[in-house]
Hints:
The protein is of the alpha+beta class.
Amino acid sequence: MSFDVVTFVNQQVGLFTGAAADQSVTWAKESQFAIQAFQKNDFLAKTAMANPTSAQNAIINVAAIGITLNPAAKLAYLVPRDGGVHLDISYMGLLHLAQVSGAIQWGQCKAVYAADTYESNGLDTAPTHKYKAFGDRGEIVGFYCTVKTPSGDYLTHEMSVDEINKIRARSTSFKSGKNSPWITDYVEMGKKACLKQGAKYWPRCERMDKAVHYLNENGEGIEMEPVMAHKPEAEVAAEAAERFSRMESLAIDLIEGMRRADNMDELKDLFGKAYTMTKGTKLQSNVQAEYAKKKQQLEGAI
């Protein structure tokens, strides 16, 4: 059976919009980023073809977590691992989730090398880290993550390289001995491991907690819970089409309600529901057009 990545990705629109946690992460943009990822990575596309349910889950998680696949942002990626496609979130992506959710004002994660000068100034004060920006700094000896809370306090979490390596040893990708990010991007993974440990002490953030939980559960990959059983591609496409049809029917009912609205309050309420439901689909332009038309009628009657 042939596998058309464009068709496959576009079939996920109903599931994506239904799971959206952040309205700024739109189907219109994320579907294109996903298509680009599959088209640029032949192995990723072949993995999706062999296990389409995993690819579907990964795309749904982009919406459920509320993180963008924009390659320029470097916050999250679709990656092939253990025979499936997974959503992987970088340490910058985790910091982004914490910031946009209001858990922290800002944060940074850095590696400490043998030639650096590093002094811990307590849990509520930023550390002192001096180093030569250009030149040999020796071997990595540890990592730290510092964030500033909304109340203005600093929280710093530090981990030695031995502590980081113990976490690495538990990673399924590292134990596989294959092309693990722990091998290709050790510093970035060390920063992420330190951040995930330190986040336990930050102000609570549901989206951040969900992302870290999924990463931990799947050895630096993300699976929806519960994981959907494997289904033939045609069956998955049929179910997605049915869900989209139901959403389309509800949206049409809301549009009809907008046309019959007697006042602006009623119109705005119906518009808000229809706009959210159709976000990222072609129907949304119809919703906007009907709203503008009815708004003009109601305001003209005042």
